[in-house]
């Protein structure tokens, strides 16, 4: 299994990129969001990859983080969601946006992805609602930089861009808040939905405030 490819970009398109690794060019299919975030041709790049194997076809799909790769694996486990539809959803919502949509049962957000109809969007939310909190709670560990430790090629490449942080503060807050709420005895799906809704509060700027806001949302209503 090819899990990660690092090298120099030699071709870019809206739905794929070619990365040269020691003279071998790997074509990697990516979402439009990922394609737009990649550096220019001639610069170093690394992507986490998932290999699709069929009798007459081998395709690599690339992701900027392990978190997004994990979401891709979950999406493609849903009947009717192939790799193309998965990339369309991730390209539209991103990993965090997808987690939020599923946690809140917002199938309309999933439906905004090109080629995804209402029935398929509803199926995604329904089938992944119980699985999504697990990925969301691990998001800080699965959001990692892919620009460092690029494999050296025979030809000198331009220096890689400054590495991005391993995880955004909001990603850390979300993961920690979900974990705390589940430790308090709340169900994973309820905890994820409350945290997703609480994240809209502008005052929820750290883990503690996010947890308090989510707890208010989870409190029994009179």
TrEMBL record:
Compartments (UniProt record): Cytoplasm
InterPro entries, per the entry: DNA_helicase_Holl-junc_RuvA_I, NA-bd_OB-fold, RuvA, RuvA_2-like, RuvA_C, RuvA_C_sf
SUPFAM superfamilies: DNA helicase RuvA subunit, C-terminal domain, Nucleic acid-binding proteins, RuvA domain 2-like
GO terms, molecular function: ATP binding; four-way junction DNA binding; four-way junction helicase activity
Subunit description: Homotetramer. Forms an RuvA(8)-RuvB(12)-Holliday junction (HJ) complex. HJ DNA is sandwiched between 2 RuvA tetramers; dsDNA enters through RuvA and exits via RuvB. An RuvB hexamer assembles on each DNA strand where it exits the tetramer. Each RuvB hexamer is contacted by two RuvA subunits (via domain III) on 2 adjacent RuvB subunits; this complex drives branch migration. In the full resolvosome a probable DNA-RuvA(4)-RuvB(12)-RuvC(2) complex forms which resolves the HJ.
The entry's keywords: ATP-binding, Cytoplasm, DNA damage, DNA recombination, DNA repair, DNA-binding, Helicase, Hydrolase, Nucleotide-binding
Domain of life: Bacteria
Domain Holliday junction DNA helicase RuvA C-terminal: start-end pairs: 174-219
A single GO BP: DNA recombination
Gene Ontology CC, one term: Holliday junction resolvase complex
Protein family (similarity comment): Belongs to the RuvA family.
The organism's taxonomic lineage, starting at the top: Bacteria, Pseudomonadati, Pseudomonadota, Alphaproteobacteria, Rhodobacterales
Gene symbol of the encoding locus: ruvA
Protein name: Holliday junction branch migration complex subunit RuvA
